[in-house]
Amino acid sequence: MEKSSKISGFYRLSIEARRKILREWADLTDAELAAYDFPPGIDPGIFDRMIENVVGSYTYPLGIATNFRVNQKDYLVPMAIEEPSVVAAASNAAKIARAEGGFSAQTTPPIMIGQVQVLDVADPAAGRLRILAAKESLLEKANAQDPMLVKFGGGARDLEVRVIPSPRGTMLVAHLLVDARDAAGMNAVNTMCEALAPDIGRLAGGRSLLRIISNLAIYRLARATATFRPDLLATDTMKGTEVVEAILDAYTLAAVDPFRCATHNKGIMNGISAVVVATGNDFRAIESGAHTYAALQAKEGAVVKPLTTYEKDRAGNLVGSIEVPLAVGLIGGATAVHPTAKANVKLLGVKGAAELAQVLASVGLAQNFAALWALATEGIQRGHMELHARNVAATAGARPEEVDRIVARLVAERKIRIDRAKEILEELRASGSR
Ligand code: MEV
């Protein structure tokens, strides 16, 4: 009989009962089912309440980036990521930056934007003014939705209204600006927007439709800078001053070419997202905001802009900087309930969301610098290949004491393949050498 994915009441079943269905569905073995098990320290009930239809947990490697110093304070930075080299690269870059004092970082106030879309407005310019004229009472109503946020010094601060021509007629879009304090702000902002939407629609003389936060948090920016000394950048074949020039050339391609810029900014997000995930924050929101911000900043015919900038100071040092919206929170969401996220926040020792954003911006800059340094010198593959080769050797069945020798051969031959790893393993074992 053909299998059907229409399983009524799946959400009502226990985790065990859901797993039983999976076992039958895919003929999973005991070992495969065990891969869904909750690790010690994780209460299945917490996960079962976090999302729907939970059957287990998916575990990411968690690594710690060392050497970070931001605003004169040292941090051990937890990074949850599946990609080899990222943690090592961030630690390396932080070590170089540290020689010149580390990262200097700031944040703007934690202002989030909530959007209320209004359609069918006959007189959009006048409708805009009618909404603005009612600003004070609208802000008051918004703040009545979240007395706790107001008590902690946050709340709705301002209102902007945009008139946007569209293929389906001119739309009015009201932006409610909300100080979210130490929260990412999604719930507070969405609740406020939903509460205000009928009034805004009526004032505009149209009908409101969307009421939702914008992930393009242009007012909630984090910035960081760091200085990298040329003598610390030299390689076997390049002088430090040459490396600085090569990094400037590498960076400049991202500034003029969207194909390179996408990869450049991806490398930045390798660092930022790994920490965002480790702290239980919404990495999709951060990624979306960062990439759209990069597009918004683009000037002079470019379609996107690197989130980092590199320059040379008078002493010949390389100076890197980053500016990126970072709407992360420490209260609410998974950060407040996921035990590993909670431990990671404690490990980081950040006192508030702004401090977390400052660390994130610094990690993003470090990650990007490390990528450019590798790309502008020996290339990215050597480090990657070695880590990849370790995985391949293990997958080929090498015991821990055999791994190093197999890795060395795979890298030397530039053939990082399981079939080759198996051949080398057999050779080694046949010759009795370990
Ligand atoms: C790989 O995940 C990230 C890099 O491609 C970033 C870059 O090219 O700048 C190395």
Number of helices: 17
Gross CATH architecture of the largest domain: Alpha-Beta Complex
In terms of DSSP E residues, the strand content is 15-25%
Q: Uncertain regions: pLDDT < 50 for 5+ in a row?
A: none
First-to-last CA distance:
52 Å
Largest sheet: 4 strands, antiparallel
CATH topology name of the largest domain = 3-hydroxy-3-methylglutaryl-coenzyme A Reductase, Chain A, domain 2
Bound ligands, named by name, code or SMILES: (R)-mevalonate
State the CATH class of the largest domain.
Alpha Beta
Derived from helix and strand composition plus strand pairing, the structural class reads alpha+beta
Going by CATH, the homologous superfamily of the largest domain would be: 3-hydroxy-3-methylglutaryl-coenzyme A Reductase, Chain A, domain 2
Sequence of secondary-structure elements: HHHEEHEEHHHEEHEEHHHEEHHHHHH
Helix content class: 40-55%
| Mean pLDDT across residues | 95
The largest beta-sheet arranges its strands as 3-8-10-9
Structurally, the number of domains stands at 4
What structural keywords apply?
434 residues, alpha+beta, 3-hydroxy-3-methylglutaryl-coenzyme A Reductase, Chain A, domain 2, Alpha-Beta Plaits, 4 domains, four-stranded antiparallel beta sheet, 17 helices, 18% strand, globular, binds (R)-mevalonate
Give a structural overview:
Helices cover 50% and strands 18% of the residues. With 434 residues, it is an alpha+beta fold. The strands form three sheets. Strands 3-8-10-9 form a four-stranded antiparallel β-sheet. It binds (R)-mevalonate. The site of (R)-mevalonate (MEV) has 9 residues, from helix 10 and helix 14.
